[in-house]
Design goal:
- The structure holds two protein chains of two kinds.
- Chain A is an alpha/beta fold.
- Chain A has six helices and 15 strands.
- In chain A, strands 11-10-9-12-8-1-6-7-13 form a nine-stranded mixed β-sheet, with helices on both faces. In chain A, strands 2-5 form a two-stranded antiparallel sheet.
- In chain A, α2 links the parallel β6 and β7.
- Chain B is an alpha/beta fold.
- In chain B, the strands form two sheets. Chain B has a nine-stranded mixed β-sheet, with helices on both faces.
- In chain B, β5 and β6 form a beta hairpin.
- In chain B, α3 packs across α4 and α5 runs parallel beside α8.
- The longest helix of chain B is centred in the first third of the chain and has 17 residues.
- The chains are: A alpha/beta, B alpha/beta.
- The interface between A and B is large, with 92 and 99 residues.
Chain lengths: 269, 338
Amino acid sequence: MSNEFHIVVCGSIVPDPLQKLEPVQGPGGYALKNEMMLPAVLDPWAGHALYEAANLAKSHPGSKVWLVCLGPKAKLQQVMMNVAQKVPFEIVVADGNASGFTDAFETASVLSRSIEAIPGLDRDRLLLFGGWQSASRGSGAVMQMVGEMLGVTEQFQGVDKLTVGDDGSLEIMERIEGGCYQTSVVDGAPAVLGWATGELPEPPNNPQVGMQNMQKIMPALAQAKPGDVSGSSLSFEAVQVPAQRRETRIVKDTPVDEIAREIVDWLSA
Amino acid sequence: MSKILFLAHTEADGSLHKAAREALTGAKALAEGLGGEFAVGIIGADVQAAADSIGGCNGAFFGVSGEEFAAPRYASDLAAAEAIAKAAGADIIVAPASYRFSRALPGLAVRLQGRVDTHLSGIEVRDGKPVASRWYYRQRMEGSFTREERPWIVTLDPGCFAPFEGEASVEVQAVDAALPAMRTKVVGIQAPSEDEQTIRPDASVLFVAGAGWTKKQGDGATHVDVAEQVILGFLGRTKASLGSSKSLVDLSGEGQDVISFLTHMHQVGQTGATPRHPKGLATCCHGEEPHVVGWRFINERRAINTDASCGWAQGKCDVLYVADAFEVMQAVNELLNG
């Protein structure tokens, strides 16, 4: 079996984690306050999936990586200025709502249609990558539905390690309860892998890669088709930030033994 | 009339996990609130013992069993869930958000042309309608919602309901699940020994190690070996669960010394876990928002940090000890030694 893979990574943008987030109700339902003004980043788990995809493609010549994004293209363009410098990929954009308050099924439908329309994509070599969760909706459900819609029934979630055998088989380590791993072997592509953290650090910026990517990203953004995720009856009654302020007692200038005793007493209470 | 199906899978020993019995409590309350019919579906190698362990819930029981359904695997789990859902004719399916079902059940929404909402923190009946609640943006905000699409598949996170108790012998209606060609083989589980395992979901205390444990100390040198001894000593005595901040696990990618037993799976916070424990003790952590979201479900929170203006001091923990964690935790260990 050939070891050339067509790797499609699904991922989108989320607010920079250092930002304060506040829900607001608008005419279109709930959203984040000043959402379009908030600095955005590529979703962290989608980022892990993208770096794993690029590493896999690099070690298996002939492989290709696409990044399929559902999001507002103006924000995507900003984020891609940074992401494009990390690893080589082609982008496919569905111009639509990346909010966490949209329906996971609708998001999966848009992504699956976008993937089906990729020219030259060999579905027999398809590895469908994405994050096992997102930092927005965090449902951990979209990748499975995209895979199911594309007819891919070998699926793995919470993946931290993928090893490709000489015969094209895939050995996959998935997170399971209690800090353990389940190891599975599938005889080859196609498969869905929802990545957890993976094993790779974030690649350093490479301006040359960035320039090559941006030559393809800008036309792709210009040609982005609308991604409509409004076809759901999902109806929010309320969204609120919990009252999280605690009355913090600050203990300082106190002997170490006294602090230790207080902690031990608290632990055993 | 609504038909509510509670769906579960057995553990390796044929039992039901506590999280499944918690979800059963939620499912049963939902069925009672809606005045609907109630059914139970169980997937596993042999489901009878699991069914009997919850037989007192007064529902019709369906089961898909056989060796091919023993191991968690997307294709077989989904085929079994689909067969049970169709046999039960359910319009709302409630299941625990276990790793096994979190992998498989979203696909069920596509198979049944329904919808799925996962990791719910609650589900109840308001004005005759089922209303679900869950967290968004990494536990930053909680939303409550409903929807009209059916079947509606929901998974409930652990710790949100009391576990159901009520054994009784029941008759399980066997359901045949048509399996597709299976290309995936589960070959094993990697689990550290009980003594080596430092991720303990049922522990009463979460101990979180921040990046400060690997930084230069007062003498200008790092003391990662000492940090490891102190942390392992504490975990060994208290059987606490260990977590870490993202910055600590990422140090490995930056070529810095790291605490050898920390992995990405220990990470709590924005890109890590949000475990549920009664108490949490943060050491050498910054206490900034991306990290604190991992503490959403920790009831009592204390922190040790040398910086009195650290983020933890901004109303995020109950007590902040401004002190050297090396010194404090060594003293704690000595006291625990008795």
